[in-house]
Structures are given as structure tokens and as C-alpha cells.
Design brief:
Layout lengths: L3 H6 L5 H8 L5 E2 L2 E2 L5 H22 L4 E2 L4 E6 L3 H16 L14 E6 L5 E2 L7 H24 L1
Antiparallel strand pairs: 1-2, 3-6, 4-5
Helix pairs in contact: 2-5, 3-5
């Protein structure tokens, strides 16, 4: 477990390490999974998270607002079996749009949300919030780096 103080003390050069700690690679020792997901599950989750962050960035690049204290909340399924089921359900759902809604669906393998934007205000004529876009670009770069690292390592 990572203490809250870690996030407050991390330097720019440590950001890739911080993201790797948030998205660790798990392995199975003596049949028991370790903390983190295997690469075969982690990579599609990272790609999905990246797509969602990119979509948020694209939308925010078109609105003239200033955001103070907003954050991106990212959660993902850490249980190997549930993550696998959720990813399979997404793949099947994309293949078969006419599927019945009666079947029980697993929870999502990940969620990306923009949160804590109570201090956001409209700023017509001033363009998008460049600080927010910079932060999202940084996050996208870090996710790309993690994807590349996992791809090269395997």
C-alpha cells in the first residue's frame, strides 16, 4: 500500500515510477495472484483508460472554462477473474450490439471520471484552460509510457 504522502512528495522525474506503482504487473506464485494484474489484462485496461482520458481532453479543449482543484479519478478492477470477465464482456458487447439486456453484466474493468470541479467557472472569450490541458497531456504521456514499457517488457 502506498501512503498518501507519497503522492505529495513525488517529483516530476518520479511520475513514471508512480504510474507503474498504480498499475503494477502481477504474477502468480504458488497459484496465488500477487498485487497487480497480468500484462494480458493490464494492457487492454490501460488502452481503455487512455482512450477515456483522451476523450475528456478533447472535450475540455473545446470549452472556455477555468477549473480549480479538479481531478481525474481512475479506478480499475484488480481482481484477475473479474477483470478478465469484464474485458471479455466488453469485447462480446462490441461484437454483438443486439445482445439481450436481461443477462447479468460484470462491473466495468475501469472507470475514468472528472471529479472535484465545484470551483469551475465559465470564461467566455478566454479559450480553454491550458493548465488542465497540460495536466491531461502529461497524464496521457505517462499512460503511453507505461503501455510502451509493458509492451517492450513482454
Amino acid at each position: 500500500m502506498t501512503p498518501k504522502t507519497y503522492g505529495r512528495s513525488i517529483t516530476k522525474s518520479q511520475l513514471p515510477e508512480g504510474l507503474a506503482r498504480f498499475f503494477p504487473v502481477g504474477s502468480s506464485n504458488a497459484g496465488e495472484p500477487s498485487l497487480g494484474l497480468p500484462v494480458r489484462l493490464l494492457l487492454p485496461i490501460l488502452h481503455g483508460i487512455r482512450d477515456d482520458v483522451a476523450e475528456i481532453r478533447e472535450i475540455l479543449s473545446t470549452v472556455e472554462v477555468r477549473m480549480v482543484g479538479a481531478s481525474v479519478l481512475i479506478t480499475y478492477e484488480g481482481d484477475w477473474t473479474r477483470a478478465k470477465e469484464a474485458l471479455q464482456w466488453i469485447e462480446e458487447d462490441e461484437e454483438d450490439e443486439d445482445e439481450s439486456d436481461d443477462e447479468e453484466k460484470p462491473g466495468p474493468p475501469y472507470v475514468v471520471k472528472l471529479i472535484d470541479f465545484a470551483h469551475t467557472r465559465i470564461t467566455l472569450g478566454k479559450g480553454p484552460d491550458e493548465g488542465v490541458l497540460f495536466g491531461l497531456d502529461t497524464l496521457l504521456g505517462l499512460i503511453d509510457g507505461r503501455i510502451e514499457q509493458l509492451t517492450l517488457d513482454n
